Amino acid sequence: MKTTITLKKALLIGAVVLTSVKSFAQSVSYTIEENNPDRRNLMVYLNPFNVQAYMPDINIGVDGQINYLLNKRFQVDVDFRKAWTDSGIGIFAPKGVSKASQFQAGGCFNITNKLKTIRNKVILSSTRIGRYTLTSSINVQAEARRIFAVRGGFQYFHNNQKGAAISAKDSKGNLYVLHDDVTFETVSYVVKSYGLYAGLDFKTIRDLVISTSEYGTKRTKKISNVYMDLLFTPGIVYKLTPTPNQASTFKNVDINISENTRRTIGWRLGWQYVFNTAVGFNMKTEVGQMPGPANVSPWFLTFGIGVNFGAKIKLFDKKAS
After folding, report:
1. Which of residues 95 and 273 earns the better pLDDT score?
2. Which of 57, 213, 41, 195 lies closest to 124 in space, CA to CA?
3. Which pLDDT belongs to residue 76?
4. Domains recognised in the chain with CATH numbers
């Protein structure tokens, strides 16, 4: 079997070998200039690009969030999301129909909240060769804050639906499957879910600056937050949103009935990555199953990116150890 090595591959292999030899043959000397994971206890997030692919209602919108580490034991967390494009609203929908949104307000009880000396990966340099990026880094033993908490609070979902078969009752109580047999326009409706969320929260906060003679000042400032929740929304309300042409046809029609079965239990798993600076960048993703109508797929996937603003607010703050 004949193996051909091109010049490009040879250069790449050489670069990898040189980098490896350098990392083994040379120890990087450094001094820790700053190591303060408690520099900020308030983070405000504004993500102008937040996509939610909920199977019956795909939307793009904005996400605003506040997380405040109140003291050693408690965190306050508020999150509001509002769509500015919403596939769940039909093109003939009446004016004033609210686009998809969700709101949660709650907090975390920190079971453990400690400064721990752990390995912190610090990037020293990166070089791009073609499609490849060669990165050199070192692991610095330094303090980071580790928080393990239980979380919970109030949860609200507002989703627009269209097209799915839905039961209805007329003014006389007769049950039937709702269709528009007059104008043949899509049947649209709103589902509002009210309830609670509860789960676990894992957070690591790093704020480290080192100085090296060869690479200069390098830093690793980031927050990694993993959370998982159980969603319970016993209050699920259906409401028709008829078009102007459907107003008379659907007059006195009720769809908020027990025959339209509800899924009151859901779950989500989320991860948020934050540049832990006064003004930084963050991204957040979630996957799970949303409570709501039982006749549509509950799966959803959310991804958002944006900016964050950090500060130290000594309101009820007592330094954790």
Report:
1. 273
2. 213
3. 97
4. 29-311 (2.40.128)
